[in-house]
Amino acid sequence: MEPLHFNSREQRRKIRGITVLSVFVLLIIIMFAISMNTGYIRLSPLDVIRTLVGVGTERQEVILFDFRLPRIVISVLVGVGLGVSGCILQSLSRNGLADPGILGINAGAGLMVVLFVAFFSTNAKAPVLFLPFLALVGAGLSAALVYTLAYKRNEGLSPTRLVLSGVAVTAGISAAMIVLTLKLDPQNYQFVTVWLVGRIWGANWTFVLALLPWLLLLLPYVFYKAKVLDVLNLGEQIATGLGTAVEKERLGLLVASVALAGSCVAVGGGIGFVGLIGPHLARRLVGPQHEFLLPASALIGGFLLIAADTLARWIMQPYEIPTGIVVAVIGAPYFLYLLAKSQT
Amino acid sequence: MFSLRKEKTTKISIVFISLLALLLLLTACGQTESLSDKNTTDPSNGENSVSDATNNEESAKEQVVKDAMGHEVKIPAHPQRIIASYLEDPLVALGVKPVAQWSVGNGQTVQDYLQTELQGIPTINYDLPPEEVMSFSPDLIVIGSESLVQNGLYEKYAKIAPTYVLGDEISNDWRKTLLKLGELLNQSDAAEKMLQDYDQKVKEAKEKLQNAIGEKSVAVLWLTQKQFYMVDETRSSGAVLYGDLGLNPPNLVTELSEEAKATWNPVSLEKLAELNADYIFLVNSDKAQGDITLNDPIWQGIPAVKAGHVYEMSTSSSWLYSGLIANEKIIEDVLKTLVK
After folding, report:
1. Which of A42, A43, A224, B103 has its CA 20 to 30 A from that of A182?
2. Contact (CB<8Å) B17/A122
3. Which pLDDT score, from 0 to 100, does residue A86 have?
């Protein structure tokens, strides 16, 4: 039984958390609707509703369910995955600048994707379902590389070194990707350069199927470990003192974060910043307790990406700007603002 | 969750479609007489006048064929609204007009040399965004390369209309492309005749050129964004000049073709100084920007330039493209300049 005088603060926090979560769920739903309406072929909202209910024309159904919906669903899923991944990374490394993109995870996954595309056709169903797994392997390798480079025996994981080695590894791998593509598969050169920027390239239901199991598996695990993350945040010594198997838990969560980022990147391209901004905003809105921070990061990440994707498809019709560019346009200034703030 | 919704919509769709089909059937029945008349006496489908006689023999009916990627495609008997982006050359040669034409930059760049035949036809972006394709309601889509339908794009196009992928093997060879399209459009005989006519033209042109310039060598250069490019021996205008017409390529072309991967390969100005071609055909895309590169002393020092044997081809010419019509125009240009 908690002492009475703690109740009101707890309650306030919980109410606030739930409100924020509900607001973002609503925002995502609204953005969903707007996104369904966006596209080269004009569909009136009435048409959209009618098609959703099942009385639209075949043509409208094709537009909504085959062209637009897969992409919208993917953008939400990827946003959720990246948001949670970034949240874990930031908490584990206790570094507000951590994000799967910066830490070279995206690049590692990307390298695998490029190799995959060079050797397999993306039209066959079976190989595509393996893609997130391959990306995960690549992400894991590059994450391990970054970790090794940044870890110093006596100092542990310094935030600056982490970011620096992450940036270096990303640059190196990105360059390798381009060179590899030129050698193996010049036709796909444009694909790689666009991929590096970040674009929802796999926009059909097969890709959704490929991504969904990973999210369904990893997200519950991560949410379950919310309290563990809270404890780890207090520092290694305190955490051990409180009885947490620090190394084991940290490794598990790290693997989950890399797996989430890897599989999302496999399907959504090298989109950076979502894992950075999502958790940041979430932290400001709901505070540092992970029971709310994790879902909030997920929802804000999801909302950010679906909004960016809709904008990317709408701004320069009939062209589609790669989603990653819109995210970067929003993300880079925010990132700079963070850096500036952290120095004063 | 998704399958449930699809089931319900599929059921309703089936009802609607069968009602529609019934309606169409009833209307069609009443018009069978006039329809068959239309087919035999009035080749209004835009088919070549040459193929008038042969057309009656080739029964134009729906075909089910397998494309380069193994898809089974049902080609309609008389496609009226074709989208065959970057394949407009063979289409026009076969006398068929597409419902949308290839373009880059939202209509900014089109195939200029085909514009007399393609005038008024709206443009579609070269990467064929599915919704844009759908907005034209095509009844047949022909795609050149497999790389254009990756990442699940094929399924999307297939939902709009029967989609046939030629494959790189065919689309990189303009003759095979022409024959294949002829096959799909029930004009195989016409296509073969056109190739025979072309070969005849080539033979005559070859003789004239042999008499006019003998063994002298010819180079084809493209100047764009202040960078020179040289054509690959076996592609585009290179294939026409060196392959068909048998003209001699200069030293640099043979060097380049060994390691070349693209149709047009960048050549530095310094390297060009070694060019020993007697004649240069130059496609000058920098003309509007003042083509200052041509004032460079290295360019001026090249033997062919000094002798004044540089012939500028306009950017609206067909020298950058490949196809029956493109090649015929290239041959005309060559004859006009080299055979006095």
Report:
1. B103
2. no
3. 93
Chain B neighbors of A201, CB-CB under 8 A: 151
Q: CB of A150 within 8 A of CB of A167?
A: no
Q: What is the pLDDT of residue B181?
A: 93
Identity of the amino acid at A15? I
Select the residue of B147, B152, B160 nearest A202 (Cβ to Cβ).
Answer: B152
**Residue range A24-343, CATH number:** 1.10.3470.10
- Which of A214, A197, A203 is CA-nearest to residue A81? A214
- Say if the Cβ atoms of A187 and B151 lie within 8 Å: no
pLDDT of A311 strictly over 70: yes
Give the per-residue SS3 of B206-266. Answer: HHHHHHHHCCCEEEEEEEECCEEEEECCCCHHHHHHHHHCCCECCHHHHHHHHHCCCCEEE
For the stretch B114-135, pLDDT in tens is: 998 998 999 998 888 888 899 9
| Residue showing tokens 């305190």 | A238
pLDDT of residue B21: 57
d(CA B187, CA A342): 72
Amino acid making up residue A131: L
Residue A313 pLDDT grade (very low, low, confident, very high; cuts 50, 70, 90): confident
Taking the CA of residue B151 and the nearest CA in chain A, the distance in Å comes to 5
Instruction: In whole angstroms, give the CA distance from residue B93 to residue B98.
Output: 12
Q: Residue type at B116? A: T
Calpha distance B142→B157 (Å, rounded): 10
Q: Which of A229, A220, A289 is nearest to A253 (CA)?
A: A229
Tokens of B327: 């090649």
Question: A63, A73, A188: which to substitute to probe chain B, counting the most B Cβ within 10 Å?
Answer: A63
Q: How many CB pairs under 8 A join A and B?
A: 73
Comparing alpha-carbon positions, the chain B residue that sits nearest to A204 is B152
- Nearest by CB: B130 against A55, A56, A67: A67
Q: State both tokens at A331.
A: 């993300």
Residue in chain B lying closest to A184 (CA):
B261
* Chain B residues lying within 8 Å of A39, measured CB to CB: 131
In chain B, the percentage of residues whose pLDDT exceeds 70 is: 81
Mean pLDDT in residue range B40-51: 36
Residue A163, CB-side half-sphere exposure with 13 Å CA sphere: 12
Domains along chain B with CATH numbers: 61-186 (3.40.50.1980), 199-338 (3.40.50.1980)
- For range A46-62, the mean pLDDT: 81
Q: What is the pLDDT of residues A199-233, one digit of tens each?
A: 777 677 888 888 898 899 999 999 999 988 888 88
Q: Considering chain A, what is the average pLDDT of its residues?
A: 82
Segment B75-95 shows an average pLDDT of 92
- What residues of A are in contact with residue B130 (Cβ under 8 Å)? 67
Most confident range (mean pLDDT) of A126-130, A235-239, B105-109, B302-306 is B302-306
Which residue of chain A comes nearest to B132, CA vs CA?
A: A40
Q: What is the average pLDDT across A307-315?
A: 89
The answer, for B172 touching chain A at a CB cutoff of 8 Å, is no
| Pairing mode of beta strands B218-224, B279-284 | parallel
Q: Which of B12, B131, B145 sits opposite A63 (nearest CB)?
A: B131
Query: What pLDDT is attached to residue B53?
Result: 40
- CA-based nearest residue in chain B for residue A66: B156
Q: How far apart are CA A300 and CA B196, in angstroms?
A: 65
Nearest to B151 among A55, A58, A122 (CB): A122
Q: Closest chain A residue to B126 measured between Cα atoms?
A: A319
Interchain CB distance below 8 Å, B129 and A59: no
